Amino acid sequence: MRKALAAVAGLAVAGLALAGCSGSSGGKDGGDPNQVEVFTWWASGSEKLGLDALTKVFNEQYPDVKFVNAAVAGGAGSNAKNALASRLKANNPPDSFQAHAGAELTDYIEADKLEDLSSFYEENKLNDVFPKTLLDRLTVDGKVYSVPSNIHRANVVWINTELLNKAGIDPKKAPADIDGWLADMKKLKDAGVATPLSVATDWTQVQLFENVLLSDLGADGYQGLWDGSTKFDDPQVTKAIADYGKLLSYANTDGTGQDWPVATDMVIDGTAAYNVMGDWALAEFDSKGKTYDKEYTTWPTPGTDGTFDFLADSFTLPKGAPHADAAKDWLRTISSADGQKAFNLAKGSIPARTDANADDYPAYQQGAMASFAKDTVVSSLAHGAAVKVSWLNDITSAIGQYVSTKDAGALQDGLVQAQTKGLGK
């Protein structure tokens, strides 16, 4: 998916507030009504394949509406976020834009840049087909501002089965906790695997850290970090920081600056044994011709079994959208059974709709669908579901410094400060 919220993007998004509420209402089409400009960061690779699959369904459902692809490449999503913020501030919005469901939308909502889609949900009976756990995460003060195209899971370990077998480790059996996982990494290192764990750029390092927090604190403790009921100076956070440092000692040192496919490809080509990545990685394995449960497998990050670390790609209707009616057609395709099936089969994620047929999906996605239905769902930090952009940027900065300095005390201090600022205390 891309998956990043780079710090520079937050600066641009924060500037939205300066634009005030001067955008016009997005109810009337301007110019040619038979087109829809959709803004994403899905410009290449498996992400573009997913967008292409979705637009194919859109073209079939609405053949008289021209789809205008306004994808912005580069910067792991930060380029797109900066360009989007500039357009919204200038009251020149696209007809719809991609964002992560959850707290990432806070700045747009507070700047009065998004239309309330509650009536759209009612008209299209989406409240009946989206699960309550998802609807709760989409609702802000009783209103819904985006339509999800999928559900992704962020607490997934991708495993090269050959490397584990050679080291005498059963790839189908996940360690019970981080300590057990570290013990297996030592076995891999002793067996000659130079890089047991692969990492990439800053957001992947944040995602790894959130997985360690979830493992060491449990679902309740982890969720408490975002409402203040768990403090970042808690001893369990201290332990998580220590565990994070130990994991990084088994990781490649050149990850910063590399985007996520590089780290995932290290598992695919056998230069790394493990990679913690969301299930957008499934499309990467598929594109390289790898077979699930043969050349690679997956399990929840050790210590997080029974928990689903959630994020979702979603699309909005900006205020002042020049082709608002066509944008609603796009949102109908996104939320339709056919649209969700086509998109998620290409993307590796699972459909947001509860009426999807699991038999239409391969083994990994069937397992993820079952997990989302029964497990405890928590919101991803790294992918905008748990906290607003400014708070995530502060955490990303603190982790970036830690990766360079390995100063655990400074990291914990930075996390405490970020929480205090994020909660407005």
TrEMBL record:
Keywords: Signal, Transport. It holds the Pfam family SBP_bac_1. Gene3D superfamilies: Periplasmic binding protein-like II (3.40.190.10). Residues 1-19 form the signal peptide. Part of a binding-protein-dependent transport system for a sugar. It comes from Microbacterium elymi. Its main location: other. It is found in: Cell envelope. InterPro entries: Bact_solute-bd_prot1 (IPR050490), SBP (IPR006059). Belongs to the bacterial solute-binding protein 1 family. The keyword Transferase does not apply. The lineage of its organism: Bacteria, Bacillati, Actinomycetota, Actinomycetes, Micrococcales. This is Probable sugar-binding periplasmic protein. The keyword Nucleotide-binding does not apply.
